[in-house]
Amino acid sequence: MKRFFKPVEKDGSFKKPALSPSPTTAVTREQKDEKDGEKADERKEPLKFLTWNANSLLLRVKNNWSEFKKFVETIDPDVIALQILMRAISNAPFGNYRVWWSLADSKYAGTVLFVKKCFKPKNIFFSLDRTVSKHEPDGRVILAEFESFRLLNTYAPNNGWKEEETSFQRRRKWDKRMLEFVLQSSDKPLIWCGDLNVSHQEIDVSHPDFFSNAKQNGYVPPNKEDSGQPGFTLAERRRFGNILSEGKLVDAYRFLHKEKDMERGFSWSGNPVGKYRGKRMRIDYFIVSEKLKDRIVSCEMHGQGIELQGFYGSDHCPVSLELAPSIDSNKC
């Protein structure tokens, strides 16, 4: 299948799909990158982050684009991590950011990372094993390494409903690799964000009984722990909890918000029509190393209601994280 996203340049600079630039344009870009590099030498670190699964952005955001643009300008994040991307987002309000696109063979997959130009990552990888030239299948990973921490943007595969290669088995392999990754990356604090496709605890769904007993076409998996709504099966939730505990990681939203919030406490909301009306899940996260938990200033979800207010055309709402500066960090 034809690739929908072009490889980024070796240094991570983004170029829109177009004709080859003129010599004048190339020189200008080179000079600009040099200036950005000088700013990066000040070793400032990003403090404000935004993650969003921009599901069906190109099709559904037409009526919400100005609203979303205003939202990004108001939040003014240093880093924007998106999942399921479309080329519509290569325009404003992202002009002040460098961008790294993952590679995906499907227009329904992929991730993208925007980083303000004054915060130049030391390294960018597109696979959990940090192989330079390798991209994860479906473009599910972008890993940015900064001076004092790593930022991991992932779009986790859906667990599915059946015991088959593209469902349960795929999710088990993913969770196993994520556990290996966090254990092997303990030398530096981690910020892990994205659509993680799991609701960890009962407080993280609006209707626990509904999601626990959900079935597709009456199918019941052989293992009871695999039963229920994908993202809320006992097997997934236990594996996710194990990743957090073994990796010494903290759920930033739940660290600040201990109580259930039926209005604002979920990042995914079902279609306003049908059996999922009013049913919600929290499956989009900022997970941080325990070393960073005392620096968490805020972690918020910016959508609400069964009519998907603040979801900007997706069935997921944006989630933001802000950290307090470390001793040696400065604001861009």
Automatic annotation (TrEMBL):
Residues with site note (Important for catalytic activity): 284
Residue stretches of biased makeup (Basic and acidic residues): 1-14, 29-42
Record-annotated site: Transition state stabilizer: 197
Renumbered residue ranges of the record's region Disordered: 1-42
Domain Endonuclease/exonuclease/phosphatase: 50-316
Residues where Mg(2+) binds: 53, 195, 197, 315-316
UniProt signal peptide: none
Active site: residue positions: 155, 195 (proton donor/acceptor), 316 (proton acceptor)
Alphabetical list of Pfam families matching this protein: Exo_endo_phos (PF03372)
Note on cofactor: Probably binds two magnesium or manganese ions per subunit.
Sites annotated Interaction with DNA substrate: 316
Listed NCBIfam families: xth (TIGR00633)
Protein name (Swiss-Prot/TrEMBL): Endonuclease/exonuclease/phosphatase domain-containing protein
